[in-house]
Amino acid sequence: MSSFIVLGAQWGDEGKGKMTDYLAENAEVVVRFQGGNNAGHTVEVGDKQYKLHLIPSGILYGDKLNVIGNGVVLDPKAMFEEIEYLEGLGVKVSKKNFIISDRAHLIMPYHRALDSAKEKARGKNDIGTTGKGIGPCYTDKAERSGIRVCDLMHKEVFKEKLKENLDYKNEILTKIYGLDSLDFNSIYEEYLGYAEKMKQFVTDASVRVYDEIKNNKNVLFEGAQGNLLDIDYGTYPFVTSSNTIAGGVCIGAGIGPTMINSVVGIAKAYTTRVGKGPFPTELLDEMGEHIRNVGHEYGVTTGRARRCGWLDVVILKSAARVSGITSFAVTKIDTLAGMEKIKVCIGYDLNGETIEYVPASLEDLALCKPIYEEFDGWDSSVENARSYDELPENAKIYLKRIEELTGTKISIVGVGPRRDQTIVVSEI
């Protein structure tokens, strides 16, 4: 039995989709434990490209059980659109390979409306939310007024909870934001339609995942966003609304920490982020633009251009600490190919003091100046390497130094977007 976590070690967009897809080959169960359809994973299999937002990446194999855990906030409309998209590409989604936790909270139309309205009201102080209702749904969950999947399965319970919530949300939408109220009957009928289609997938996912582990199945827990988007340990408030670190698995999937064997942190060979907030190694020059274009650094969900910079080892060390990362999978070293020199941030200068952690205060992080080590680059032959020995010598020096600086081994190296462009260095 092997139960392991795959999560992002930076600000997200590290290539988790590809790595989850690759590691899912040897897994029998793939569990999504947090977030919603605000995440985006791109997976390339042969000549096909799949863009996933909510359904676990293991769905592409057909014979894996894919689980939406209780920690996920679920938009039924987005989910069924994604199922339709996948089936259009020949990917079968059925109750045999896909289940949904009855404890997951539902994203409602008023969550999306409030998300967009509040973001617009923030003006220049906007956070950069996707507007998909993620934050407001988690707000209701914490406020104990949320509607769960199990509520949707009981028509009268859902009706009562929807009426109570919508009356209150319409007051906010109309009186605070000056928007039109939302119609109860249309939402009620729409979601009853989802309930009918959804009920075949709904079960107690915690029990199912526990039983699978106890039956010696290999279980992969899939994170949706990166370490620095964690609501507690990320660059707050420019974060998501859930716990993206490894500890979130126990809460979001309903299993104990003793059932987890290893944690794989996915890290790009450089750093990117979307949205606002301090970014110590950001490159606001031709080099940053070069990395963006070569690495195709545009959001899967939003299409927004990602901010790009040199690899930040301070971030990786923080991720290793709070998530107990046992190995890193370093992706996209092919993007750096052809550069004469490459830099890595090994620490921050904060008001004349060297620190090796990410400060909680964004004001302090904004003052942090990166301390760099410089490396010789490597050529484009890296994308054709299929073993560690075939990598250019300078690429191996670069990777070895990451291991030394983080105190964590590298188990996998990605040299391109396809499944076959993946080099296994050691056991995860």
From TrEMBL:
Subcellular location: Cytoplasm
Bound cofactor: record note: Binds 1 Mg(2+) ion per subunit.
Pathway participation: Purine metabolism; AMP biosynthesis via de novo pathway; AMP from IMP: step 1/2
UniProt-listed CDD domains: AdSS (cd03108)
PANTHER family the UniProt entry points to: ADENYLOSUCCINATE SYNTHETASE
GO cellular component, one term: cytoplasm
Role summary: Plays an important role in the de novo pathway of purine nucleotide biosynthesis. Catalyzes the first committed step in the biosynthesis of AMP from IMP.
Subunit and interaction comment: Homodimer.
InterPro entries: Adenylosuccin_syn_GTP-bd, Adenylosuccin_syn_Lys_AS, Adenylosuccinate_synth_dom1, Adenylosuccinate_synth_dom2, Adenylosuccinate_synth_dom3, Adenylosuccinate_synthetase, P-loop_NTPase
Pfam family, one: Adenylsucc_synt
Signal peptide coordinates: none
An example Gene Ontology molecular-function term: GTP binding
Chain positions recorded as substrate binding sites: 300-306
NCBIfam families according to UniProt: PRK01117.1 (NF002223), purA (TIGR00184)
This enzyme's EC code(s): 6.3.4.4
Catalysed reactions, as listed in the record: IMP + L-aspartate + GTP = N(6)-(1,2-dicarboxyethyl)-AMP + GDP + phosphate + 2 H(+)
Positions bound to IMP: 13-16, 38-41, 130, 144, 225, 240, 304
Family indicated by similarity: Belongs to the adenylosuccinate synthetase family.
Domain of life the protein comes from: Bacteria
Active site annotation, chain numbering: 13 (proton acceptor), 41 (proton donor), 141
Binding residues for Mg(2+): 13, 40
Protein name, entry field: Adenylosuccinate synthetase
Residue positions binding GTP: 12-18, 40-42, 306, 332-334, 414-416
